[in-house]
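Format notes (please read before filing issues)

Several people have asked whether sequences and structure tokens are stored in separate files. They are not. Every record keeps both together, in the order shown below: the sequence lines, then the token lines. Line labels are part of the format and must not be stripped during preprocessing.
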Amino acid sequence: MSAPAPVDPDELAALGALLRQRGYHFTTVTPATHARVLGRAAPDQSGAPGLRDVFGWSKPFTAEQIDAAILARMRGAGVLLDDAGTLRSAVRASTIGRQLYFHSAYPTADADAVFLGPDTYRFVRAAGHAIDQLAGQSGATVRRAADIGCGAGPGAIMLAQRFPEAQVYAVDINARALALAEVNRRLAGTANVECRHSDMLSALDGEFDLIISNPPYLLDPDQRAYRHGGGELGAGLSLRIVEAAIARLAPGGTLLLYTGVAIDNGEDPFLRQAGVLLEGARMAWKYEEIDPDVFGEELDTPAYAGVDRIAAVLLVARKGGV
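Then the structure lines:
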């Protein structure tokens, strides 16, 4: 299958606007669920695929089966894959609330794939709820904020919408993610989001009032950037984010870290290590289990042999009290 041309951000943004005009919406599921849905025997393939088939389920189609305006925008944006006349989209489009986000097509096998899935929905919801609680308790002003490992940008965009006067930095080491985050920022109309290539916060100066993150937390044998957390049972990146927040939060500043933790024989190694760091820095913090069982299929892999479960958690840590 031929590779698409380099993505044109103007054309891709125009494609996103066109999809919204057509009433497009799609909730992205886990890769395992996606594979199950695609593996079902379809009784009738004679009808033209819908927009959800093309941009949600990453199904193939032909030029004759899709609206000409959509096809022209895909070609102009450089997201049209062509295998001897059988076409596919190089991107998926997911909706969270009223916002539309482009990210990588299924399957996300490339090392620089840009992933959005159920964790993203949980992250945005949990972080938004935590922000509302903090605002009610302290009323602190957010002037500078950062989303570490922003991916397609939903977290940064959520921050920018809640704090329109703040400067929000969407940072990632994945150039492909930053390109899509920039398009998604434009679709959301959040001019106060700046996408930056940065390992943690190394490319940015100064302190931050709010840092959020939904980092990779699995042990991936291929070490794909969007999945591999490294360290003990995938907690390496999450612990680095805790360290970065301790160093770079302003007085009264808050870290909201949504991550996954491997529960080993009833113990949470990430909680143990993060707690030592936070107590040593005299940070006030609280820790909540959001979902007790995510990515259960990973327990069949050698990396998680003997592990009880993988849980999604939210860590809220603040300089000056929670």
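For reference, the curators noted about this record: DSSP finds nine helices and eleven strands in the chain. The radius of gyration is 20 Å.
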